[in-house]
Design brief:
32 helices, 9-stranded mixed sheet, single chain, alpha+beta, elongated, 17% strand, 881 residues
Length: 881
C-alpha cells in the first residue's frame, strides 16, 4: 500500500520513527544504509572520447584514408586541407554535444539548501542532503520541500506543485486519510521534493529521499531516455555508410582496371610511375564523389534556420531540431500557458436577479448587488498588483482584482477607502476567507469561498438590493447554476456578507450570511490558437493535449479550440494506465486529451506515437515534463518554464505560445527543403565529376581532374552556393502538404531525379569538353584545363536551377534570393583567381589555354543550365520535393 493510503501511525511505524523525530544515531545509521538525500548523476563522456567518436562516420573514414595516402605520396597540400576540414567539423560536434545534456544538474539545483527538522526532541536546521526517511520536517510559507513525505499536521497549507504535476494553481494540502488510489496531483496528504510552500504551515514525516522521491524518479527517467536522432541524422548516417562502401569499391575497381591495363599492355617505360598515376586516378574518384564540406554546410543551413525561428519566438538549442520540426506529424502540447493565456480571468458574473458575461465598463449604471459583489471580491482578498502591473498572490484572487480594474473600479481605491479591520484567513479545511470592514458607516463581514460551503452558511439572499429569506427554491437555483459553471470547467467562487458590530472575529461569525453572487473564472484559450490548430491540421499535423489539470477542464478547453472532435476521447492518467499496449495503439488516434497525467504517462504517449512512425513533438514547462521532452523527437520547452525542462528540450518558446510552434514548423519544413536542395546541388556536381572520370577511364584518356582541382571545387567553390541555397524562401504550398515519411531516404522522388539529371547533364558537358581538348586541340593538358573549366562553371551555374524543383529562377524571382546571386559572383571571382598566371601551375592549367578554349568550355557549362531550366517548363512538377 502507498504511504498516502496509510494512517499516520502506520507510516511512522513502517519508517521506524515517531512524531518526536529521530536521534542522531538513527540518522547516521540510515545515511550509511541508504545514502544522502541527493540525486545521482552518471559520468559524462570525456571530451577526447567525443572527439574520437566524431571520426566514426564512414565518409570521414574514407577521407582520412585518402589524406593518409596523400601524405605518404608527398601530396601535402591536399591532405592538409582534408584534415583541417575534418578537425573543424569534429570540434563543432564536440561543443554541441557537451552543451546538450545539463538536465540533471538543473534538477540538483532545485533541491532546498536546508530544512527544519525535529531530532533528539528538539527543532534544528540541517542541510537538506542529510535528511533521511523517518525525519520529521517542519514547513512554513516560502520553504522549499526538501524530500517527499506524508503530512502529520497541516494548517491552511498550499503548495505550488506545477513543476511536478502540471497544476496551474497551488494545491491545497490536508493531513487527511485517502483510501482510494489517486493520481499524484490529487494526493492532498503528501508533499514532494522540489515543490514550494506558498501558504500555511505543516509537519510531515519523510517517506522518500534522493532517487526515491518523485523528483528522483523524474531524474532517473531523464537518464534512461536516450536522445533521439533526427530524421536527417538517420538518413545522412545511413547514406554515408552506403556511399563510403560504394566509393571504396569504385576506387578499388578503377585502380584494378588501370593496373590490369598497365600489366597487359605493351609494357610501361616506368612501372612505378604508371601504377602511381593509376592510384592517383582512383583517389581522384574518391575525392570527387565525397562532398567534403557537406557536414559544415548542413550545420550552417540549420544555423540560418535557427535565426529565422528566433524571430518567430522559437529558440533552437540543438541544431538538428530545425529540420525535425519540418517532419513533425504529432504535437503533444501542454494546456496551461501554451493553448491558454495562463492567466485566470473572470468570464461570468451571476446575481440572483440576473447573469451576464462581464460587467459594463460604466460603473455608474451598477446596481447595489453588483457593487457589493465587487467590494467583497476585492476586499476579502490578499493578492495585489504593483505599479508595473506585476501580480503577487493566488491566481484566482489576482483574477478578481484584475476584474475590478477592468470594470473601472481600481482595487487600490476600494482598499484605501475601506481598510481591513480584522480577518479570518483562508483555511483549506473550511474553504472560506472573511474580512471585517466599515462600509457606509456600517461594519460588515465580507466572505468568499467555495460555493457549496457558502450556500450552506447563507440564511438570506440579496435580490434587487433587498435582503430576503433564503428559500428552498432559491437554494436549488444556486446549486444548479454552480453545477452549470462547473460543467463548463469554470473555477467558481461564491460571495456573501453580514452586518457585524464586534471587532474580534471567530469562526462562528461565518454563519447566517447574506448571499450576494457568484463569479466564474477560467484560464481562457489564446485567441490565435484555434486558427493555428487548423493550420496544423491542414499541414497533416495532429494536435494532442496533455495536461495535469482535471479532465473536465481540459476537455472544455479542447472543445473551445476545435481540438476535440465528435468521436474523440479524453482520458485521465489512471485510465491510460488501465489500457494495455494493444488497446492504446487501437484507440491512440482518437484520443485528443490526456488529463491528470504522470511523467511516465507522458513518455508512454510519446512512445506510442513514435511506434506509429510519427515524428512527435512534445511541449512542457515543468520538471514532470522533462523525461517526455527528452523522449520526443523534438522537445519544446516554455521560456517561462523550469531550467530542467529547458535543458531536456531541443527548442524553447520565448512567448509560450502554440502559434509559435506552427510557425516554427513552417520554417523547419523550409529548412529541410533547403538542406535537400544544398545536398542535391553538391551531389549533382560530384556525380558529374564521377561520370566524367569514369568516361575518361573507359576511353583510356588522361584523368580529367587533379585531386587539388576537385578539392577546390568541393570545399570552396561549391560551399558558397550551397549555403546560399539555405537562404531560399518557402516553396508554394509547403504547409498544405502532409509531413514527409520519416523513413523516406534523402535521395527519393524529385530529389533523386534532379541529382541524376543534373549530374549526367554536367558529366556529358565535361566529357564533350575533354574530348574537344584531346581530339580538336590535340593536347591532353588543354583537355584537362577545359574539363576543369566546364565542371566548375557548370556546377556554379547549377545554383540557379537548384533553387526549386517546380519553378525556374525567373518564376521564383531571379533576385528574390540575393545570396544566390552573390554566391555566383563570388564563385566566378574565385575561379578567375585560378586563371591568374602565377596560380595556373598549381591547378595544372597551361598557358596555352586561351579565350577560344575558355569560350567553348563556358558555352557547354551554360548549355547545361539552360537545359535544366527548360526541363521545368516542358515537364513541370506540381509540388516541391
Amino acid at each position: 500500500m502507498n504511504f498516502y493510503q496509510q494512517p499516520p501511525e502506520d507510516v511512522l511505524s513502517s519508517l521506524n520513527t515517531t512524531d518526536k523525530g529521530l536521534t542522531s544515531e538513527e540518522v547516521k545509521k540510515k545515511q550509511e544504509e541508504h545514502g544522502y538525500n541527493e540525486l545521482e548523476q552518471k559520468d559524462r563522456q570525456s571530451l577526447f572520447s567525443l572527439f574520437i567518436d566524431s571520426f566514426k562516420d564512414p565518409m570521414v573514414i574514407v577521407l582520412l584514408i585518402v589524406a593518409i595516402i596523400q601524405i605518404v605520396l608527398g601530396e601535402t597540400i591536399e591532405s592538409i586541407i582534408i584534415l583541417t576540414v575534418l578537425i573543424i567539423n569534429s570540434i563543432l560536434s564536440v561543443v554541441q554535444t557537451r552543451k546538450a545534456e545539463d538536465s540533471l544538474a538543473s534538477l540538483r539545483d532545485m533541491a532546498a539548501p536546508s530544512a527544519t527538522v525535529v531530532r533528539n526532541n528538539s527543532t534544528q536546521s540541517v542541510p537538506s542532503k542529510e535528511i533521511v526517511a523517518g525525519d520529521i520536517v517542519i514547513l512554513e510559507a516560502g520553504n522549499n520541500v526538501p524530500a517527499d513525505g506524508r503530512l502529520l499536521e497541516a494548517e491552511s497549507l498550499q503548495v505550488e506543485e506545477g513543476a511536478l504535476t502540471g497544476e496551474s494553481i497551488p494545491s491545497d494540502k490536508e493531513a487527511i486519510m485517502i483510501s482510494e488510489e489517486t493520481a499524484l496531483a490529487d494526493r492532498k496528504n503528501m508533499v514532494y521534493s522540489g515543490t514550494l510552500v506558498t501558504y500555511g504551515r505543516a509537519r510531515y514525516v519523510v517517506t522518500g529521499i534522493g532517487k526515491e522521491t518523485e523528483m528522483g524518479k523524474v531524474a532517473e527517467l531523464i537518464q534512461n531516455v536516450s536522445a533521439k536522432q533526427t530524421p536527417l541524422q538517420r538518413k545522412l548516417e545511413s547514406f554515408s555508410k552506403k556511399l563510403g562502401f560504394v566509393i571504396l569499391g569504385l576506387s578499388v575497381l578503377i585502380f584494378a582496371i588501370q593496373a590490369f591495363r598497365i600489366f597487359t599492355g605493351e609494357g610501361p617505360e616506368d612501372l612505378q610511375i604508371e601504377l602511381l598515376n593509376a592510384f592517383m586516378f582512383a583517389i581522384a574518384v574518391a575525392v570527387a564523389a565525397i562532398p567534403e564540406a557537406l557536414q559544415s554546410i548542413v550545420t550552417i543551413v540549420l544555423s540560418v534556420g535557427t535565426n529565422k525561428m528566433a524571430k518567430k519566438h522559437a529558440i533552437i538549442r540543438k541544431l538538428p531540431a530545425v529540420e525535425t520540426l519540418g517532419s513533425t506529424g504529432v504535437i503533444c502540447t501542454d494546456k496551461t500557458g501554451t493553448l491558454t493565456q495562463n492567466k485566470m480571468t473572470v468570464v461570468q458574473a451571476y446575481l440572483p436577479e440576473h447573469e451576464q458575461e462581464l460587467y459594463s465598463s460604466e460603473p455608474t449604471d451598477w446596481s447595489f448587488g453588483e457593487n457589493r459583489l465587487n467590494q467583497i471580491a476585492v476586499l476579502a482578498n490578499d493578492s495585489s498588483l504593483n505599479e508595473e502591473g506585476e501580480a503577487s498572490g493566488d491566481p484566482t484572487e489576482v483574477a478578481l482584482i484584475n476584474y475590478s480594474n477592468k470594470i473601472g473600479l481600481p482595487f487600490s481605491d476600494l482598499r484605501n477607502k475601506f481598510p481591513r479591520i480584522e480577518e479570518l484567513p483562508f483555511d483549506s479545511s473550511r474553504k472560506l476567507m472573511s474580512t471585517l470592514h466599515e462600509i457606509d458607516g456600517e461594519k460588515l463581514l465580507l466572505t468568499k469561498g467555495g460555493p457549496d460551503v457558502v450556500f450552506k452558511r447563507c440564511s438570506k439572499i440579496l435580490i434587487n438590493g433587498e435582503v430576503v429569506e433564503m428559500t428552498e427554491e432559491y437554494s436549488k437555483t444556486l446549486y444548479e447554476k454552480n453545477e452549470e459553471y462547473s460543467n463548463q470547467a469554470y473555477r467558481v467562487l461564491a460571495f456573501a456578507y453580514r452586518p457585524l458590530s464586534k471587532e474580534a472575529l471567530d469562526l462562528e461569525d461565518e454563519n447566517d450570511l447574506i448571499f450576494v453572487g457568484l463569479l466564474a473564472m477560467i484560464d481562457p484559450p489564446r485567441e490565435e490558437v484555434s486558427q493555428a490548430i487548423k493550420e496544423a491540421a491542414e499541414a497533416g499535423i495532429r494536435t494532442v493535449m496533455i495536461t495535469g489539470d482535471h479532465k473536465t477542464t481540459a476537455r472544455a478547453i479542447a472543445l473551445d479550440l476545435n481540438l476535440f472532435k465528435e468521436d474523440d476521447i479524453a482520458l485521465t492518467g489512471q485510465e491510460l494506465d488501465a489500457l494495455s499496449e494493444e488497446e492504446l495503439m487501437e484507440k491512440l488516434e482518437h484520443i485528443s486529451v490526456y488529463a491528470r497525467v504522470t511523467p511516465e504517462n507522458k513518455i508512454r504517449i510519446v512512445q506510442a506515437w513514435q511506434n506509429k512512425d510519427q515524428i512527435t513533438a512534445m511541449t512542457g514547462d515543468g520538471v514532470n515534463d522533462a523525461p517526455a521532452l527528452k523522449q520526443a523527437d523534438i522537445g519544446i520547452a516554455m521560456g517561462s518554464g523550469t531550467d530542467v525542462s529547458k535543458d531536456a528540450s531541443a527548442m524553447i518558446l520565448t512567448d509560450d505560445n502554440f502559434v509559435s510552434i506552427v510557425s516554427a514548423v513552417a520554417v523547419g519544413r523550409n529548412v529541410y527543403s533547403n538542406i535537400k536542395k544544398a545536398i542535391a546541388y553538391l551531389f549533382s556536381g560530384n556525380l558529374g565529376a564521377v561520370v566524367a572520370i569514369i568516361a575518361a577511364l573507359l576511353m583510356n584518356w588522361i584523368n580529367p581532374f587533379t585531386a587539388l582541382q576537385l578539392l577546390f571545387i568541393n570545399l570552396v567553390n561549391d560551399s558558397i552556393p550551397a549555403i546560399a541555397l539555405g537562404m531560399e524562401k518557402e516553396e508554394p504550398h509547403i504547409m498544405k502538404q502532409n509531413p514527409r515519411d520519416p523513413n523516406e531516404g534523402i535521395f527519393t522522388g524529385q530529389t533523386l531525379q534532379s541529382v541524376i539529371l543534373r549530374g549526367f547533364t554536367i558529366g556529358i558537358a565535361v566529357i564533350i569538353s575533354q574530348a574537344l581538348g584531346i581530339y580538336y586541340f590535340g593536347s591532353p593538358e588543354i583537355s584537362v584545363a577545359m574539363a576543369f573549366t566546364t565542371l566548375i562553371l557548370s556546377r556554379t551555374l547549377q545554383v540557379f536551377p537548384a533553387r526549386s524543383n517546380t519553378q525556374t529562377s525567373f518564376q521564383a524571382g531571379f533576385f528574390s534570393n540575393k545570396y544566390v546571386v552573390g554566391a555566383f559572383a563570388v564563385c566566378m571571382t574565385l575561379y578567375g583567381i585560378t586563371m591568374l598566371p602565377v596560380v595556373r601551375p598549381i591547378f595544372n592549367i597551361p598557358n596555352a589555354f586561351g579565350l577560344t578554349e575558355w569560350s567553348i568550355a563556358a558555352g557547354l557549362a551554360l548549355a547545361t543550365t539552360i537545359i535544366l531550366e527548360l526541363k521545368k517548363l516542358v515537364f513541370p512538377s506540381k509540388l516541391a520535393d
